[in-house]
Amino acid sequence: MNRYFIIPLIALYTLLLTGARFVTPEDDWTGTPQADFMQSEIVQSYQCTSCHTIGERGGTVGPILNYVGNRRPKDWLKRWLADPQLVKPGTKMPSFNLPPAQLEMTVDYLTSMKKKFNTKEILAKNISLEKKGELLFEDYNCIACHRVGSEGRFVGPELTWIGLRKTQAWEKEWLADPPAFKPNTFMPNFNIPEKGIEALAEFLHLQQGQKNEDSQRWEFRTNFFLGNTDKERGELVFKRFGCWSCHGESAGGGVENPNMAPDELMPALKKTTNTFSMQEFVTRLKKKKFVKPLDASKPAPPFFCPDYGNHMNETEISDLYAYLKSFAPKKSKWKFK
Ligand code: HEC
Ligand code: HEC
Ligand code: HEC
Predict the structure, then answer these.
(1) Of 171, 253, 261, 320, whose CA is between 20 and 30 Å from 111?
(2) How confident is the model over 65-87, as pLDDT tens digits?
(3) What sign results for the dihedral spanned by CA atoms 130, 132, 135, 141?
């Protein structure tokens, strides 16, 4: 069948599947600061919604902005809007050079887009620690940046498989104060109380891909519109399994692993396909790995390459290989002596 014929069919199918969402009462944004911002000259003239979801509508490139006032203080928002590149070099968010009055107005809108957290109420409930963590995850609106199952964004690493790759102890340390662990991180500090951190870490640690089932449909669509090449699917696998949380965006490396030999930096994977054959790569992903410490008397490095053995299927692994291969320096066929 012709591909251009299929697109409207898929759009219709998706609409039918998700249609029910548009009529639930909690999605009614009428009269909220979010709706006001949507109507404002700022969003109208600068098209913030081409990348950001506000209310129920908008793009998926940037974080969902609905409760941004909860996580970013005024002075941070000012600095961000004045020049995003200064705060996060390489970001896709353009600098709009807003005149001072408009900058002020935008910051006022954004700071008013917040809600009351229900941390105390959730923690007081008579339910499991995991369930409390799940409710807190929703309450803090972590899906503004992270994907779990079929919901969320790719601004932070996907958390569907987080339990496979990070220890619960590290998760607690991270949630308590992300910039303390990584000074320039884009993840905000939510000042979560200790009991809340415990619940969140419990919930996160139990995420070992069980919500992956939900997202099959989404991926099918993504793949379809991407053109369905192995390299592009591989990029999605790289993001979905969180390889980038350790091997860096675009497999560029440079993420710290304190006390790991030789230089405390986790490796780039740009040359991986030159070093590993497809078969060796498969074996490598299945093996339990150990990380050599730089100094045996200091605490062990917190990160190690997870055992993905039974969690990835063959297509996912070969797509991933194709993605990494797209970075690899070409091997020369001839050796000159
Ligand atoms: C071309 C896409 C794009 C457009 C257009 C865009 N942004 Fe962004 N924005 C991003 C991305 C991407 C991020 C997250 C930073 C990153 O991952 O690089 C971001 C982050 C933000 C943040 C921080 C959000 C948070 O949760 O911390 C705010 C606030 C923001 N944008 C406001 C705006 C406003 C207001 C406009 C319109 C005037 C706008 N953006 C237009 C891509 C965009
Ligand atoms: C404004 C976007 C944003 C929001 C909101 C956000 N995060 Fe993050 N988060 C990030 C980014 C970006 C990273 C990657 C850290 C880095 O490399 O700087 C991250 C990293 C993480 C990690 C480590 C992931 C890994 O694979 O190593 C966890 C766990 C995490 N966030 C949990 C949460 C939780 C829980 C919430 C809600 C309370 C939350 N995040 C809200 C942006 C965000
Ligand atoms: C929690 C952090 C973490 C995650 C997530 C992670 N890795 Fe690793 N990886 C490491 C560390 C640390 C090393 C270096 C030590 C070692 O060889 O095990 C490594 C090494 C590797 C190597 C060997 C590199 C070399 O040059 O010898 C490959 C290949 C690799 N990882 C692939 C992957 C892939 C593919 C993913 C995602 C499916 C992934 N890793 C996810 C931490 C991680």
Answers:
(1) 171
(2) 999 999 999 999 999 999 999 99
(3) negative
